[in-house]
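@channel anyone free to eyeball this complex?
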Amino acid sequence: MVVLLATSHTDEVELWRRLLEKRLPGVELRIYPAIGEPSDIEVALAWKAPHGLLATLPQLRMVCSLGMGVDHLLDDPTLPSGVVIARLVDSNMVEQMSEYALYGVLHFHRRFDVYERFQSEHRWQELPLPHTAARRVGVMGLGEIGADCARKIRSLGFPVSGWSRTPKSLPGIQCHTGKEGLNAFLADVEILLLLLPLTERTAGIIDARALGRMPHGSYLVNLARGGLVVESALLDALERDHLAGALLDVTAVEPLPPDHPLWTHPRVKITPHIAGLTNPLTAIEPIARNIERLMAKQPVTHAVDRERGY
Amino acid sequence: MVVLLATSHTDEVELWRRLLEKRLPGVELRIYPAIGEPSDIEVALAWKAPHGLLATLPQLRMVCSLGMGVDHLLDDPTLPSGVVIARLVDSNMVEQMSEYALYGVLHFHRRFDVYERFQSEHRWQELPLPHTAARRVGVMGLGEIGADCARKIRSLGFPVSGWSRTPKSLPGIQCHTGKEGLNAFLADVEILLLLLPLTERTAGIIDARALGRMPHGSYLVNLARGGLVVESALLDALERDHLAGALLDVTAVEPLPPDHPLWTHPRVKITPHIAGLTNPLTAIEPIARNIERLMAKQPVTHAVDRERGY
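replying in thread with the prediction:
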């Protein structure tokens, strides 16, 4: 079995090599662009691989995403249709995402955004604090990550609503579904967390209309994909004081261009796509298991349904 | 029964009156400074009452603190010795304190302090992220609040150590005790949370020596009392890069004077004593129950041991 590694994180290539050779000694690893004979390659481990690359591998059977999302694969129009795409689901990354989500909720709930400004003014002033049990948090996307976030936020005493494309049922979470459930979901959410995959259906889902449904003075935390949000509508909602703040780990264009207005908006906090970082030390295991399943002709886990887009 | 309310939060006086009259209809409430006949008063509800006031009430039997700490009462040298002092333990405030503690841990663990600086430089740069399971958090003080914080931080996957004056045992927490346990406790704690009461024994406990025991690059979160920390030693440890950052909700002098160097230190984050705010709506219940116990000649709960100071 020959596996190709094609990642934009070139600093991690040697670590992946060591881990893969140790975990799957029989497997030969090639590192893009040193592909060798293309027809040798049956599996590709990919993160933002160049479009067109995978189509040049005639014997390719599976692509393992090195990140949790697969939009970086599916937006390659030449992606061969017969190849299995596997998402990466690593409990360590789920844990990281939930940490970021909890941080975002507490940041706005406890007004650390305002206290930061007060500090710059040397101002010692207490603000009123709404009861945790009265601050509804909304989680959009109830997959592995969304469900873990919802549960952990709930356990701190926040009421939590969830929204997903297909009906879900989670203990203690008020679940909404589909287009028809979206307005009701948004209407009473004070802190909205985005944890959706980026697909044809979800691109731009947080537009002027959706933002308008959210209560006056609410907050947005996007730790999924920048493309979910119409950034001009977000800036407009912040400008009109309809939205009180946003914490964005992802933006439509990454890296965020130095002259982009999101960098300097006083009520926007930016982090550079770090909510869930792939750690090869923990990600190697689910990836190696999927390679073993493929070799044993067993179904791989977390295979992507291309129709739904994740 | 006549109860005196003496609080520096004068904006909450009418709310306390409404709540107390509703919960304990037989009780007469007087609001400082309108004391009336001093010998009528058997109970005082106090937050930062003027020193000397309580000594003028000859029939005083109990003082209920309106905050979780009682250092604001015990530092009054005229405090009558025969009077019962009751701490306020309100599960809502415990929840608030744990929210703040979790926020502080995540703030430093996930490097939001550094990403804030990056944003000001329009810099999109990922930093390495240590595994949550490799980041030891230390909780000093394992009372109601410390125990709740330790449990919640542990549940996110952080290894947690605790330190307390008397031996404690908490599931999953490495517990250290007393002076002899302090050095070992501090030596492997990367994020230190202070949740101790301020007493003769704990004043200045975080001095140059204690800070020196903490690992290079560690963080301090103080959400208890400013007097626990020797601020000159803290500033020195930050200056020497021994400590990587501090989040302080409390300072030796409050409000923090406008020209104090803590306001402007680039690695210090300040909030104005808001980690746990007394909410009369929830605090009324434990206070009313203690008044009822006193009237029924039953022992009050959370009575202070003046010798130990809390």
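from a first look: DSSP finds nine helices and twelve strands in chain B.
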